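Much of our argument rests on the idea that a fold can be written as discrete symbols. This step matters because it turns folding into a mapping between discrete strings. The record that follows shows the chain in one-letter code together with its fold in token form.
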Amino acid sequence: MSKRSREKEKQRQSQSTALSIRELWQEKKQILLLALAFAALMGIFYGFWFSEIFMTNVLEPVVKANAFVASKILNLFGFDSITSGSNISSSSTSFSVSIKNGCDALEPVAIFTFVVLLAPVSLKSKLYGMASGIPLLLILNQLRIISLYIFGIYSPFLFDLMHVQVWQALFIVITLMLLVYWVVWAVGREK
């Protein structure tokens, strides 16, 4: 093969590669833009998440509300629990649990909300998704807090396992399943 033929071949391959990248971009542009928008929203969320404004004005009231609601539910089932800020304790045992950053369900709610808002479906489907998904995640978080309190009283050796491994993984899986369910529902509804 002559030098000129090799140069033409290289040029043809270069043009072919540029064309395939352009075609790939056109084919995947919407998905890539949605992924970039989601990453940007999560970046903004985490920028706010680590701010003092968030800690004082959002996180503190949310964890206190979580503790209060969990304590009231526990008391309905005969547990003698009391709250002090974000702490739930038992007057009959020395056990107490403190609701902290990460045990508030705000991250899963943010992830769910951003995916729903960015989905290319109607506003009605988005509102339905948020009106059903967010309360379900908040209820799931209450179940997590209540179950951890009960584990802490009756099975302290399982408390860390349930808190760190089981509930964290379960919360992620349920959030993703809820998102998949909503996406399938919303896309089906739009057709």
Observations:
- Helices lie at 3-49, 52-76, 106-118, 123-154, 156-190.
- The mean pLDDT is 88.
